Amino acid sequence: MTALKNDRFLRALLKQPVDVTPVWMMRQAGRYLPEYRASRQKAGDFMSLCRNPELACEVTLQPLDRYPLDAAILFSDILTVPDAMGLGLYFETGEGPRFRKAVDSRAAIEALPIPDAEQDLGYVMEAVRTIRRELNGRVPLIGFSGSPWTLATYMVEGGSSKDFRKSKALLYDNPQAMHLLLDKLAQAVTSYLNGQIRAGAQAVQIFDTWGGSLSDAAYREFSLAYMERIVAGLTRENDGRPVPVILFTKNGGLWLEAMAASGADALGLDWTCDIRNARERVGDKVALQGNMDPTVLYANPQAIRAEVGRILERYGKGSGHVFNLGHGITPEVDPAHAGVFIEAVHELSARYH
Ligand code: CP3
Question: Ligand 1 center to residue 27 CA distance, Å?
């Protein structure tokens, strides 16, 4: 395999020295970019874009052609796993994801198959191989999956939800059934991420978007415990290099110590935490990724630079920080503002290294 030309993202995740703080953006390939909208139109719809490795590769590289980003992230979706379990994922324009079949009983959970990464999600593995080839060592490629709890919410609700009425009712009515579902998802996610690593992913991130909706006790039992199981089951090496694992629980600030003990290499932070306080709490155990409020990108360039500078100052000197937004970039952001953000991270961080 080609040697990496820019490895500061991987180095920061392992707390090795870097010249400047690396940066990437969650949802960096997305609707705020006109070239993304054009590719999606060419594909027909979002899922056709995900299922076509050449087009998935094309959109993965679009933000890298515009900005000096330090990592690429596989273009796909977390809901490909439940789709491969037979639920029939589709996207209604402007309405978010939906499943043709929701998981609404213990019998439905028992009947769920555990997908095989190569056979049932081969289009994702092919996208990873294609992107690695086309990246040609420019920057590392991040693979990803949803957390079992986050995937379970979509599967039980049949789509997005504001209050998680059905999934939380199931958790409290029939915790054993919920555990059976989470156990199946943990197996599916472990094999899916290991497949991505075999195909060439150089780091992986677990998106626990909805872990922060749970009580303290329920988070530990129904979300974190399954992410720990996944982390323990991952092949953490590729091509003779460690493959770092990043855990991102949105609204997870309460649980940083517990997450730092999960075996992951790094934690993703949303913007509600102070990154200096987070650094003190996790100590040497993990690196941190985050944590600018994505809505700062609606503000003027000077305000964006000021906020980048403030977060860099809060983290302080030394490696172990990957700059990112605290959640995905939104469709309304001006692409020029994303550019200001990325350049500010590189420019203003040099003095901390
Ligand atoms: O970060 C990246 O650039 C990689 C691609 C990526 C997408 N989704 C592409 C996408 C990643 C990592 C995801 C993860 C994902 N998907 C999560 C976890 C992270 C998070 O944002 O909290 C979740 C919860 C999903 C499920 C999902 N997919 C939803 C709720 C939606 C609709 C949201 C919306 O903004 O309309 C999607 C669709 C989706 N996934 C889009 C993209 C670029 C927009 C689809 C489009 O082009 O219309």
Answer: 7
For residue 112, give the nearest of 92, 133, 88, 91 by alpha carbon: 88
- For residues 123 and 201, the answer to whether their CB atoms sit within 8 Å is no
Tokens 């820019």 label which residue? Answer: 6
pLDDT, tens only, 136-157: 999 999 999 999 999 999 999 9
Residue 103: other Cβ atoms inside 10 A = 25
pLDDT digits (tens, 9 = 90+) for 171-206: 999 999 999 999 999 999 999 999 999 999 999 999
Cα dist from 190 to 80, 85, 266, whole Å: 14, 14, 18
Q: Is the CB of 236 under 6 A from ligand 1?
A: no
Q: Is 327 annotated as a binding residue?
A: yes
What is the reported pLDDT for 19? 98
Report which of 348, 340, 335, 345 is spatially closest to residue 28, judged by C-alpha positions. 335
Domains delineated in the chain: 8-352 (3.20.20.210)
pTM (2 d.p.): 0.97
d(CA 117, CA 194): 8
In the three-class reduction of DSSP (H, G, I as helix; E, B as strand; rest coil), residue 260 is classed as helix
Our answer to whether residue 154 is catalytic in this structure is yes
The one-letter code for the residue type at 80 is T
Give start and end residues of each alpha helix (H) in the chain. 8-13, 34-43, 46-51, 53-66, 80-82, 106-111, 117-120, 122-135, 148-157, 165-173, 175-199, 216-218, 225-233, 256-260, 275-282, 301-315, 335-349
From 40, 129, 220, 241, active-site residue = 40
Counting from 1 in the atom list of ligand 1, the atom nearest the Cα of 63 is 3
Pairing mode, if any, of strands 241-242 and 237-238? antiparallel
* Catalytic pick among 70, 77, 208, 270: 77
